[in-house]
Amino acid sequence: MSVLRRLGLALFAPLLALIVAFLISAIVILAIGEDPVVALRELFNFGDSSASQIQAIAVTLNRAIPLFLAGLAVSIGFRMGLFNIGVEGQYRLATIMAAWVGSAIALPAALHLLVIVAVAVTVGAVWAGIAGFLKVTRGVSEVISTIMLNFIALGLASYLLTGPFRGTAEGSLIVATKDLPESGRVPGLNGVLGSLGLAEPRTDLYGFLIPAVVVGIVVAIVLKRTRFGFDLRASGLNPTAATASGVNAKSMVVKAMLISGGLAGLIGLPDLMGDSYHFGTEFTSGLGFLGIAVALLGRNNPLGIAVGALLFAFLDRAALSLQFAGIPSQVVTIIQGTIVLAVVIANEVARRIAIRQAERTGAKIPAALPPAGDQRATVAS
């Protein structure tokens, strides 16, 4: 199969999904008595001035950073044929622990930041590792264990926030940990924009954008260019064959969950270290579940996940504009949901087209489109 044809098949699924999603959303908007054209115009309304446009871009990027990290965390599990639904609990518990430790110590800036990141990664990895350990030792489905661990993590985080980790006074409207000191905060990138001659947004562009990009590059290299990445994919697609070739499939399950949880621990850090500087009742929730959608949209490829995160962040930013135009902001949720459903269907359509073309030409089926079977194997491609 030629490179152009393979590229066409790779782009076919997400493009078809987007078209279908926007068509369904347009029908829904018509059904509630609003104009889809107005909704579409508001989606792409970045303002008239350069300052408002830069502000809209900064808000979109700030929202995309944690979504990108969430998508990466979920994709590691998918690559192994594992469904880590526990990313939500992992990042919430990791963030509150990182916020508490970060506010309780005084260190030089570089070391302070490293300690906060290390705590978040460790807590996320350990919490996800519990599910991996239960799977390889007791055969407990990671779907069930991670769902249960989500409830435990959220309940534990709530107890810690209102109890030993509370940093606000009794009677405060917002319950939160103590603020991180200056040495535990990541500077924004507005100064970089100013040095490039661009208007600086009112909202600080998160400095965590740079570490997030580095993490994405490292994950891409590990998955595509290392023996570990190959073993991970092989163990997910066919554990029996992987074991026969010398790969310890059970060990790979635990390692995949540890890495997935470690990445999940980073999700809350852009907000914690770049904006709120504490973990509280108003801290962003739901990022772990959105990460599943972003990973599916990006086909578990770091570059695709980045595009998916930007798309979801773009839609989230547009919710306020839709409200100003008299269109319910829930339309954004409908669009996001239909995109995910359409992606799953379009991926299967693309896979079948590739198989038929391969059968006609006698060519090898592309690795990006695995044989039919368990849905998780399809997702892991």
Give an overview in words.
It is a single chain. The chain is mostly helical. The chain has a domain at 62-317: ABC transporter involved in vitamin B12 uptake, BtuC (Orthogonal Bundle). The chain is built from 16 helices and no strands. It has helices at residues 3-31, 36-43, 50-79, 87-104, 109-138, 142-162, 190-195, 209-225, 227-237, 239-244, 249-264, 269-276, 287-297, 302-324, 330-361, 375-379. Helix 3 (50-79) runs antiparallel to helix 11 and helix 4 runs antiparallel to helix 5 (109-138). The longest helix has 32 residues, at 330-361. The two termini are 17 Å apart. Residues 365-381 have low confidence and may be disordered.
Low-confidence stretches: 365-381
H/E topology pattern: HHHHHHHHHHHHHHHH
Structural class: mainly alpha
- The name of the CATH topology of the domain at 62-317 is ABC transporter involved in vitamin B12 uptake, BtuC
The CATH architecture name of the domain at 62-317 reads: Orthogonal Bundle
Broad CATH class of the domain at 62-317? Mainly Alpha
Note the gap between the termini: 17 Å
The DSSP helix count reads 16
Largest sheet: none
Average pLDDT reading: 87
What value does the Rg take, in angstroms?
22 Å
Secondary structure: number of strands: 0
Percentage of residues in strands: under 5%
